[in-house]
């Protein structure tokens, strides 16, 4: 079935559901599992009035938080008896979806598991959808784990 499953995660309830699904799939298919979290440093381009020192502090905090997200996800996998690898993705020039797409190619993954918040209307328009962007960018199968749509 699958050889290498990658779960792209953040710190959301939907993402935690996706982690559990990825672990179960990896276990049932005998696949290896890699958990990735992308820090979107490209957002800093929008903070032109922020001092370099403040940007560095924010960047370090985002990286530390990303590592915490990965560590917690790896613990979920370990608690289920699965040894998952983790990879923190960072780029000053690539979007989150571009970072994940590039990692999928480098890891030779054959399935991406990602959560989707199920936003609709103006919320989706304003916030965008990483899951949707990934669907357009990757050439492997994608399992989208749905969250509960907000009211």
TrEMBL record:
Location in the cell: Cytoplasm
Matching Pfam families: Usp
Superkingdom of origin organism: Bacteria
Record's keyword terms, sorted: Cytoplasm
Boundaries of every UspA domain copy: 1-146
Family: Belongs to the universal stress protein A family.
PANTHER family (alphabetical): STRESS RESPONSE PROTEIN NHAX (PTHR46268), UNIVERSAL STRESS PROTEIN HP_0031 (PTHR46268:SF15)
Protein name: Universal stress protein
Organism name: Nitrogeniibacter mangrovi
């Amino acid at each position: 079935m699958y050889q290498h499953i990658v779960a792209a995660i953040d710190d959301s309830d939907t993402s935690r559901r996706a982690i559990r699904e990825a672990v179960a799939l990896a276990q049932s298919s005998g696949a290896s599992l890699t958990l990735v979290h992308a820090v979107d440093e490209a957002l800093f381009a929008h903070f032109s009035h922020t001092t370099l020192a403040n940007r560095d502090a924010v960047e370090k905090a985002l990286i530390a938080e990303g590592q915490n997200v990965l560590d917690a996800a790896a613990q979920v996998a370990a608690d289920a008896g699965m040894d998952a690898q983790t990879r923190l993705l960072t780029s000053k020039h690539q979007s989150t979806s571009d970072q994940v797409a590039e990692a999928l190619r480098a890891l030779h993954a054959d399935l991406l598991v990602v959560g989707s918040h199920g936003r609709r209307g103006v919320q989706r328009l304003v916030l965008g959808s990483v899951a949707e962007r990934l669907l357009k960018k990757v050439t492997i199968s994608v399992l989208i784990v749905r969250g509960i749509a907000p009211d």
